[in-house]
Amino acid sequence: MCVISLCTRGALHTTARRRSTAALGDDVHVRHKLHNCLLRPWRAGDEASLTTHANSRDIWLNLRDQFPHPYTPEDAEAWVKFASSQAQPTSLAIEVDSEAVGGISLKLHDDVERVSAEIGYWLGQRFWSRGIMTAAVRAVTEYGFEQFSLTRVYALPFVTNVASHRVLEKAGYAREGLLRRSAIKDGIVLDQVVFAITDHDLVRVSVA
Ligand SMILES: CC(C)(COP(=O)(O)OP(=O)(O)OC[C@H]1O[C@@H](n2cnc3c(N)ncnc32)[C@H](O)[C@@H]1OP(=O)(O)O)[C@@H](O)C(=O)NCCC(=O)NCCS
C-alpha cells in the first residue's frame, strides 16, 4: 500500500497551487510506505545509475525497440542530455536512495489527438514489486491531466506483460481492448492491450 503525494517540496493542498508550482518544473514527490521515492526531472549526473539499471534484457523485452539494449553509457548520456533539456518535463526520473533507478514518460500527441498522451515506464529490477510504479503512474497521470490539459492517458503493454497490466489497473486505468498482432518484439508477433484513463474517470474517483 502506498501513500502518494504529488507535491513540490512539502505538502500542497490545492489544485491551483499544484498547477502553479509544477509548471515551474519543480520536483514531484512520491512517498512510499517503505522507501522514499522521488519523481524528478532527469539531470546531469544520472548517467551512471541509468546505465546500471536500464541495462536489462528483461526490461527491454517489455519496451519498444527504441529503448536500447545493451544500454551503454553513450545511450545514457544521450538520454539525459535530451530529457534534461525539456522546459516542461514529460520524462521524469524515478529516484530511490538518491539514485535514478527508473523512468516514466508521457508522449504527448498532436493535431486532433493533442488531448491524448501515451504513458510509458520502466524500473530497475531490484526495485520491482514494491508498489513503486503504481505510485509513479498515479502521480504522473495526475500531472499530465493538470499540466497538459489532457482528456486521456493510455498505455499499450504487450499482452504478456501481466505486471504492467496490474500496475495500470491499480492506478485506475480501464482495459479497453486488444490490438491484435499489432507489434513485434524479439522476433515474436504480439497483441497489445489498450489501457486508458480519462479526465471524466478522475472526476468520478474524486467525488466517490
Ligand atoms: C512493469 C513494471 C514497471 C512494474 O513495476 P513495479 O514497481 O514492480 O510495479 P508495482 O509493484 O507497483 O505492481 C506490480 C504488480 O504486478 C504484480 N506482478 C508482478 N509480476 C507479475 C506476474 N508475472 N504475473 C502477475 N502479476 C505480477 C505484482 O504482484 C504487483 O501486483 P499486486 O500489488 O497486486 O501484488 C516493472 O516490472 C518493469 O519495469 N518492467 C519492465 C518494463 C515494463 O514492462 N514497462 C511497462 C511497459 S507497458
Write up what this structure looks like.
With 208 residues, this protein is of the alpha+beta class. The protein has a domain of 142 residues: Gcn5-related N-acetyltransferase (GNAT) (Aminopeptidase, 3-Layer(aba) Sandwich). It is built from 7 helices and 8 strands, in the order αββαααβββαβαββα. Strands 1-2-3-4-5-6-8-7 form an 8-stranded mixed β-sheet, with helices on both faces. α5 links the parallel β5 and β6. α2 packs across α4. The chain is globular and about 40 Å long. The N terminus is likely disordered. The structure holds coenzyme A. The site of coenzyme A (COA) has 21 residues, from β5, α5 and α6.
State the gist of this model:
This protein is of the alpha+beta class and 208 residues long.
In spatial order, strands of the major sheet run 1-2-3-4-5-6-8-7
CATH names the topology of the domain at 15-156 as: Aminopeptidase
Count of helical stretches: 7
What compounds are bound to the protein? coenzyme A
Compute the number of strand runs: 8
Regions with pLDDT < 50 over 5+ consecutive residues?
1-25
Mean pLDDT value: 87
Question: What order do the helices and strands come in, and which of them pair?
Answer:
Blueprint: H1 15-22, E1 28-31, E2 36-41, H2 47-54, H3 57-60, H4 73-83, E3 91-96, E4 99-108, E5 116-123, H5 132-148, E6 152-155, H6 162-170, E7 174-185, E8 188-198, H7 199-207
Parallel strand pairs: 5-6
Antiparallel strand pairs: 1-2, 2-3, 3-4, 4-5, 6-8, 7-8
This protein binds coenzyme A.
Coenzyme A binds next to strand 5, helix 5 and helix 6.
